[in-house]
Amino acid sequence: MDKLSVRDDLHRMREELRRRLGAIDADLGVALEKDSEERAIQVENDEVLREMQTEGINQIAAIDAALERLERGTYGQCVKCKAAIGRHRLAAVPYTPFCIECAKSLD
After folding, report:
1. What is the CA radius of gyration of the chain?
2. Which residues are CB-neighbours of 33 under 8 A, at least 6 positions away?
């Protein structure tokens, strides 16, 4: 595993999420429509945006934690069982703190 490449990928992911969160913030800042039908649609859309916002904030926190693990030298090691996290799993979710077995046990 190339530590610099992983770090760069995580930083890119974090910056992309921050950009998206900025766009979500801008959309949520739009005043509600006066027309009741339009307002209802807008409120529904805002609910979806808030869910996306929460997910983005959580992903940024997970990326920051992965960057900390990378600096400590524990990146790629499951935080629960200490086993190695499979490279395919890290390729799919580079900020995951869990091996596939521990992730399954959390569901």
Report:
1. 18
2. 39, 42
| d(C-alpha 100, C-alpha 97), whole Å | 10
**Single-letter code of the amino acid located at 3:** K
Q: What values do phi and psi take at 42, rounded to 5?
A: -65, -40
Q: What does the alpha-carbon distance between residue 54 and residue 70 come to, in Å, rounded to a whole number? A: 24
CA pair distance 25, 104, nearest whole angstrom: 33
24-46 residue pLDDT tens = 999 998 888 888 888 888 899 99
Sequence-distant (6+) residues with CB within 8 A of 71 are: none
**CA neighbor of 90 nearest in space, from 104, 76, 73:** 76
- One-letter amino acid at 7 equals R
Convert the pLDDT of each residue in 76-88 to its tens digit: 999 999 999 999 9
Distance from C-alpha of 51 to C-alpha of 89, rounded to nearest angstrom: 25
